Amino acid sequence: MTMMSSREFNQDRSKAKKLADDGPVIITDRGKPSHVLMTYDEYLQLAKHRKSIAELISMDADDDIDFDPPKLEDDREFKPMEFD
User: Fold this and answer.
1) HSE-CB for 60 with a 13 A CA cutoff
2) Cα dihedral 51, 54, 60, 63 sign
3) Which of 16, 23, 49, 58 has its CA at 20 to 30 Å from residue 43's CA atom?
4) If you ran DSSP here, which 8-state letter would residue 9 be given?
5) pLDDT tens digits, residue range 56-83?
6) Under DSSP, is residue 74 helix (H, G, I), strand (E, B) or coil?
């Protein structure tokens, strides 16, 4: 990956775009990475592999999970919440 300061980027954007043809360009601000410039095709490749939160937490229908929550003791007394 190529690194370029934000000052260099502002002075020569066409150079940054040419560099991005060979791979992502990290643009730094005060020496710290702040942005990444990449071609649209590279972005589409990254975005294609993203899953939604629903896909990430979903389970197959045939997944078998044993869940036996502990029983509450009978001497506990639960009261409804009071709102003042």
Assistant:
1) 3
2) positive
3) 58
4) H
5) 788 776 677 788 888 777 666 777 788 8
6) coil
4 strand-pairing partners: 27
Helix (H, G, I), strand (E, B) or coil at 60: coil
At 15, the amino acid letter reads: K
The pLDDT of residue 75 is 62
β-strands 25-29, 32-37 pairing? antiparallel
Q: Where are the alpha helices (DSSP H) in 24-79?
A: 40-48, 53-57
User: What Å distances lie between residue 7 and 13, 16, 19, 31, CA to CA?
Assistant: 10, 11, 16, 11
Tens digit of each residue's pLDDT (9 = 90 or more) over 26-60: 999 999 999 999 999 999 998 887 888 888 788 77
Closest Cα partner for 1 from 14, 20, 29? 20
Which residues, 6+ apart, have CB-to-CB distance to 59 below 8 Å?
A: 65
Query: How far is it, in rounded angstroms, from Cα 64 to Cα 82?
Result: 39
